[in-house]
Amino acid sequence: MNPIFADLPTTVFEVMSALARETGAVNLGQGFPDDPGPADVRAKAAEAVVEGWNQYPPMMGLPELRRAIARHYAHWQGLDLDPDAEVMVTSGATEALAGALMALIEPGDEVVLFEPMYDAYLPLVRRAGGVPRFVTLTPPHFRLTEEALAAAFSPRTKVVLLNNPLNPSATVFPDEDLALLAGFCERFDAVAVCDEVWEHVVFDGRRHRPLMAFPGMRERTVKIGSAGKIFSLTGWKVGFVMAAPRLMRGLSKAHQFLTFTTPPNLQAAVAYGLAKDDAYYEGMRADFARARDRFADGLTELGFRVLPSAGTYFLNLDIAPLGESDDVAFCERLVREHGVAAIPVSAFYAHRPVRNIVRFCFAKRDDTLDRALERLRGLAPGRAA
């Protein structure tokens, strides 16, 4: 067995979910919404599987979906994408990430990773032969700095892997941070692989700005999106890849020998969904923001220290004021003794973990959030003044 995968421990996500099932806890650890997703998009998928084509679709994706993706990003992010040469459909964003890393990295190439990070990044980089170089981001704001970037980049830097908005910190990087990173990518001739699956789940009037749109980045960025996050249909696993033709030629070959294609009925439904008017997207954001505020206000009222959440489905709690310094042990006690499952943020770090932050998923029904708050009352340090 290849040790990169064989030696990986059981993830904390599996551990916490199993404990939640075992104890009957309110599960705010898993990152998916209670909502089943928009009924019209699901109906379109059902119609397409009964009435439509069910054999292999084109490797790059249905033409109608690639055109819909190009129109969608032109409207929302001002990107001018050629649907025939610069857009590809994958079986989820994780496949897109794996394919991009396999296509871009040669053994010994250095890859800049930002901690905290999605747990798939590091094993995928290592399996592709990449050498990780870490930039450690710290609470409460998780900002990029010139000093940290300068320490991570080198003449051997080939790829930068950025998640924006950032899971688990719920950070939306400001323009000055992204411009700083773009400058380093240009200076070191690095390709940016941008995991932007949370691009529509941003709050308080924010609009996502892709790194691809920054000066000098159009030809050196691989942009990755996800229908699962856009439509709260995480089980569909329909991802998008956007890149200049020079990069897409290699990306498409990796995709060809991974999954080759993606279910055509889901592609047809996503094409329909991406054409929905602005009201859907604004309403989706408003609904998630309301859930965020309900849970954050409840935690604050109980006296907890809540970190800012600018995007994603997540809210983070600083447990240091509770006298806690081990987020893993805290989460295990939380699920066993208080009946609420959360995720220790140290699980998203590889070498210099922050151990005083825990992550909750607020993309749940009101009654689920209220039950969690009631159970957390027994742990609360006291009501805020």
UniProtKB/TrEMBL annotation:
Residues that span the membrane, as ranges: none
| Catalytic reaction annotation | L-aspartate + 2-oxoglutarate = oxaloacetate + L-glutamate
| Pfam families noted in UniProt | Aminotran_1_2 (PF00155)
InterPro entries linked: Aminotransferase_I/II_large, Kynurenine-oxoglutarate_AT, PyrdxlP-dep_Trfase, PyrdxlP-dep_Trfase_major, PyrdxlP-dep_Trfase_small
Q: Give every Aminotransferase class I/classII large domain span.
A: 26-376
Q: Name one GO molecular function term.
A: L-aspartate:2-oxoglutarate aminotransferase activity
KW Transferase (keyword) present: yes
Fetch the Gene3D superfamilies from UniProt: Aspartate Aminotransferase, domain 1, Type I PLP-dependent aspartate aminotransferase-like (Major domain)
Kindly indicate whether the keyword rRNA-binding belongs to this entry.
no
- The EC number of this protein is 2.6.1.1
State its cofactor: pyridoxal 5'-phosphate
Broad class of enzyme this protein falls into: transferase
Q: Which GO terms describe its cellular component?
A: cytoplasm
Alphabetically sorted, this entry's keywords are: Aminotransferase, Pyridoxal phosphate, Transferase
Task: Name the domain of life.
Answer: Bacteria
Similarity annotation: Belongs to the class-I pyridoxal-phosphate-dependent aminotransferase family.
Q: How does it assemble?
A: Homodimer.
User: What is this protein identified as?
Assistant: 8-amino-7-oxononanoate synthase
